[in-house]
Amino acid sequence: MTRRPVGETGAVDTTTTTAPTTRRRLRAEILIVLGLSLGEAAVYAVVNILARLTLTTPLGEQSTALNPSRSPRPYLDLVYQLLGIGFALVPVALALFLLSEPGRRATARIGLDGTRPWRDLAAGTGLAALIGVPGLGLYLLGRALGVTVEVQASALAEHWWTVPVLVLAALKNALLEEVVVAGYLIERLEQLGWGPRAVVATSAVVRGAYHLYQGFGPLLGNVVMGVVFGEYYRRRRRTMPLVVAHTLIDVVAFVGYALLPAAALAALGLA
């Protein structure tokens, strides 16, 4: 495969001469990575929404819980939470390993480094604001239309470690989704010779699919998020701002849900 240098905007000319054998291996690799991570979650989400739609209870009257407690014993619950976060990051390590090249680290290749922290923080904060507020609006609209389940962003009991674990869970989600669906998937699809629109659309659809268990509002919201994040990565070749944005969005959702009084959550249509 040949690839021309990165331009001033960070965009890469993805003209390739990938051999057929290499393309077959890349397709198999993509399926394996997705099958071990978010592709698996997408399949389960599709089955889950079909199961929900065939219940006698309307979709809008159903609920799902994120970050549930795993044990009534607090310290055992903490161990389970940390183990779940740690093992969920294994596909991230796999994707980075597969993207690495001689003389070039994968973290540098996809912009998951600390070379421009303030610019990444500013860009990530802007992306979080751009996506977070409309995302909440789509969730509330979906709830009003009865096509989105009630999402409990945190079902953890109150312990001294609850907020730190929720922050770690938010960071885990950000790393898993942005490294695999933005960085890894877009890089590999471009190596297969896919065009920009197809690459971004595929990344966005995968992102939306594994949120489908929450209903059709989150599906649409995450597809939109996937288009914005995918296009940002395609042009800038940096996942760090995406990780910052995703972490901020999830921290606000998880920690806010855990700390806000029930009356406030009810007023926002979140409980």
TrEMBL record:
Keyword Ribonucleoprotein: no
GO MF term list: endopeptidase activity
GO biological process, alphabetically ordered: CAAX-box protein maturation; proteolysis
Keywords tagged on the record: Hydrolase, Membrane, Protease, Transmembrane, Transmembrane helix
InterPro entries according to UniProt: Rce1/LyrA-like_dom
Superkingdom as given in the UniProt entry: Bacteria
CAAX prenyl protease 2/Lysostaphin resistance protein A-like domain residues: 160-252
Membrane spanning stretches: 30-51, 78-100, 121-141, 212-230, 242-268
Protein name stated in the entry: Membrane protease YdiL (CAAX protease family)
